[in-house]
Specification:
Helix 1 links the parallel strand 1 and strand 2. This protein is 22% helix and 25% strand. It is built from 5 helices and 11 strands. The two termini are 13 Å apart. Part of the FGAM synthase complex composed of 1 PurL, 1 PurQ and 2 PurS subunits.
Amino acid sequence: MSRIGVVTFPGTLDDRDAARAVRLAGGEPVALWHADADLHGVDAVVLPGGFSYGDYLRAGAISRFAPVMGEVVDAARGGLPVLGICNGFQVLTEAHLLPGSMIKNDHLHFVCREQVLSVERADTPWTRDYAAGEHITIPLKNQDGQYVADERTLDELEGEGRVVFRYEGWNPNGSRRGIAGISNAAGNVVGLMPHPEHAVEAGFGPDGPKGPRTGTDGLRFFTSVLKALVS
């Protein structure tokens, strides 16, 4: 059984949700503590959402210096699949595993809603169970969710096919070019603002085609990486 590490920083809210998502997908979640410079031999890592210490300076700016992040950076550069969700995405940009940065939502308010995403790339370890062009619905909740980068970086992301998800129907935070998620050049590191771990179990997620609270579009993030690890 593949072992997926889930990092907890002081202030992290969604680590247990991410661990449950891994378990529901058929993997073994492994708790990783921010101050422990050891990945304990995991096969992939999830940086979950919520908040992390030092966010009052800039989201993820202090957490990126946590001992565990040194190990995550080295492993990611060696090909380890890494997924950053919401605050985890912010940490990945601060650690320079992903380009760009996160700033306050353009309307300066916290937003919490069910969000439709367009799948732009379905060949990463985290998205192989989706189809390019597919629309999925997963929850979104953030205040510092506006993805920004200079035009050259945005053009590179577009030209290299590294935009993984875009907001569909409405851009909820003003992110440049409607970008909701991106990958590194190798494709093994993916970050996105919405929360797939909150759409993995019927009865507890967004509305779906089968009725209220039946949406489980987020589960395929976790089944995708498990399949990638054994392929």
